[in-house]
Design goal:
With about 375 residues, the chain is an all-alpha fold. The chain contains 10 helices and 2 strands, in the order αββααααααααα. The protein has a two-stranded antiparallel sheet. The longest helix is centred in the last third of the chain and has 52 residues. The radius of gyration is 27 Å and the shape is elongated.
Length: about 375
């Protein structure tokens, strides 16, 4: 007697996840045996359970859409609380300078502590939830590659395909899955913090706010240019590693290996050079961004010091402003990293999607330059 289980990759919220098993299974139907009885057999996996969406954000929305909504709501709560500690700092400093009653300072510090605990606890929940969604996506992608390896396609069983499958399972799905977890909440969080803190800084004093905002302009020029160069290097690296995996998987002991060894050594050297080039660009960009942050602090001291000297601003305003600049550095850096990850993971996802489509097509042809490098 045959038995039936669900087919393909479950989405978040599907019965295979909610019942606690989280397992994948394929439909099994009756198959006649020699004795005439029905025996269970496993047909080839459904291609729809293996294929990837055309774009990485389409995959994010389809696979994790409900959870992305919850992440967005948590994100809004986190960045709205971001400016409250800045205002508490300003009021405490101003009350100290004006020699106000000390019990008011204690009340403000207690409110400061409560705000930090609420914001920190909300951000902790956000980060754990976002990490869980990312790990789910990583598992989902690995399941798809596993089903691809067991598909009936001739091409998916070739040595070239096995090399690409090994590269995808080992190294390519992790960054894509990690990106899925914060695909929507990460830019919203960092942009929300930037907008709320900049608005608060302009509220404290528009002249200091304009000076700090002006120092962001150079970053809008050099960051995209350097990011574009890193994207090109990353795409080349993924293709070379795939070709290296194919070479390793496809060898047999009786083959002549000397020429292959020379080519593989050259590929390893090319990956090394590409990685070093990416590191140089990454750390140079970080250096320029840190320099911009320190210039913002200097501008706050110069402009704010003059305003205090002219009795147009209180000392607490400068303290809050400098603290605000410190709060701008991390979200701005994280936002830059996010857009870098967007471009890198789009490249990786597109290469993975094309490899899956190529192998499912079943054409007995080697992968072209769009999938691997020489």
């Amino acid at each position: 007697m045959g038995f039936v289980k669900e087919v393909g990759a479950p989405t978040l919220g599907s019965p295979a996840i909610e019942n606690g098993t989280g397992s994948w299974s394929v439909s099994r139907g009756p198959h006649p045996s020699i004795s005439g009885e029905s025996l269970p057999v496993t047909p080839p996996p459904d291609q729809d359970a293996i294929r990837l969406d055309r774009g990485i954000f389409s995959y994010v929305v389809r696979a994790t859409g409900r959870h992305q909504i919850i992440l967005v709501l948590l994100t809004i709560a986190v960045f709205l609380l971001e400016v409250v500690p800045l205002e508490m700092q300003r009021r405490v400093i101003n009350d100290l300078v004006k020699h106000r009653e000390y019990h008011m300072i204690v009340v403000l510090c207690a409110a400061y502590c409560g705000t930090v605990l609420v914001q920190g606890g909300t951000k902790l929940i956000l980060n754990i939830y976002r990490g869980w969604v990312g790990e789910w996506a990583t598992r989902d992608l690995r399941h798809r590659v596993r089903l691809l390896a067991s598909s009936a396609s001739t091409l998916s069983s070739s040595s070239e395909a096995q090399g690409i499958q090994a590269a995808m399972v080992v190294s390519e799905v992790e960054p894509i899955g990690g990106f899925v977890g914060g695909a929507l909440s990460e830019p919203l969080l960092e942009a929300g913090i930037l907008a709320s803190v900049l608005a608060y800084m302009v509220h404290v004093d528009w002249r200091m706010g304009a000076a700090a905002l002006g120092l962001f302009v150079p970053q809008l020029i050099f960051v995209p240019l350097m990011q574009l160069s890193m994207n090109r290097k990353t795409k080349k690296r993924v293709k070379i590693i795939r070709r290296l995996s194919i070479s390793v998987v496809g060898r047999s002991p009786e083959e002549e290996l000397e020429a292959d060894d020379l080519r593989d050594d050259e590929r390893i050297e090319r990956v090394f050079r590409l990685n070093v080039g990416i590191l140089k660009l990454k750390f140079t960009m970080n250096f320029l961004m840190n320099l911009s942050t320190h210039l913002q602090v200097i501008s706050a001291l110069l402009v704010g010091g003059w305003l205090v000297h002219e009795d147009q601003l209180e000392v607490g305003g400068i303290v809050a402003f400098i603290s605000g600049i410190g709060k701008l550095a991390d979200p701005w850096g994280d936002l830059v990293n996010y857009f870098r990850d967007v471009n890198l993971n789009r490249v990786k996802y597109r290469l993975m999607r094309d490899a899956v489509d190529h192998q499912l097509a079943g054409a007995d042809v080697p992968p072209g330059p769009a999938l691997v490098a020489d």
